């Protein structure tokens, strides 16, 4: 039995999904049956799940804790040629913060809770209990390896493993792009020039409720934005209460949900047309 296979079986016995690595710290290529994803590319990146191929195919998804698979004939060639052992951190309920240089290590020591640390060729792995979506380049010299990722096994490391902190989870959260200002038509006041709303509070409350309705939309965002614009204009569009500041608030809420400036403008224009404004 090779040393890499022995290491893999030992890790698997402790609940760590493993796979062999070839030279260059990369997984073995797909088997002939799966070449160029002829098998359908299972598992694809949108639907994570175990690899069902008998050979160690599909990168991180091939990782397993099943000793009968790890020590099977289809994996035998891979272990003979393996240059190392990798594991799937997310499959073991772990997250690896991969620090690739001295600057990244300094940042971690200043910003992250102390946890188990494993020396690497160029830096360190900081390992936390808890899984999250993996991502590369979350900041200079820092990668996150957890679900849908693999990490090279370089030993157990030192220190007590800490729970995954929110500061690490936040590294993969992208800030929404700022809303682009859009110039749209604001209905003019009625012929009488008299506003039926007794105080500005009524309008402010209506805009706030409209913002909340858009923000809380979980599906059919396009339709929700249009219906919300329609409701606001039907109540406030004929008396001249609305200003560009109000429409900017509505457009900002819509763009935060992924609506483009063009979609916002179209929805607003369609609502005006529907109401004859």
The averaged pLDDT comes out at: 86
Q: What percent of residues are in strands?
A: 5-15%
Portion in helices = 25-40%
- Compressed to H and E, one letter per element, the order equals HEEHHEEHEEEEEEHHHHH
Overall structural class, as computed from helix and strand content, comes to: alpha+beta
Largest sheet: 6 strands, mixed
SSE inventory with pairings:
Elements: H1 3-13, E1 18-22, E2 26-27, H2 67-70, H3 73-81, E3 84-87, E4 94-99, H4 102-111, E5 116-119, E6 124-129, E7 135-139, E8 142-145, E9 151-152, E10 162-163, H5 166-169, H6 200-215, H7 221-236, H8 244-256, H9 261-275
Parallel strand pairs: 6-10
Antiparallel strand pairs: 1-2, 1-3, 3-9, 4-6, 4-8, 5-6, 7-8
Helix pairs in contact: 6-7, 6-8, 7-9
What does this molecule look like?
The protein has nine helices and ten strands. It is an alpha+beta fold. The strands form two sheets. Strands 4, 5, 6, 7, 8 and 10 form a six-stranded mixed beta sheet that branches. The protein has a four-stranded antiparallel beta sheet with strand order 2-1-3-9.
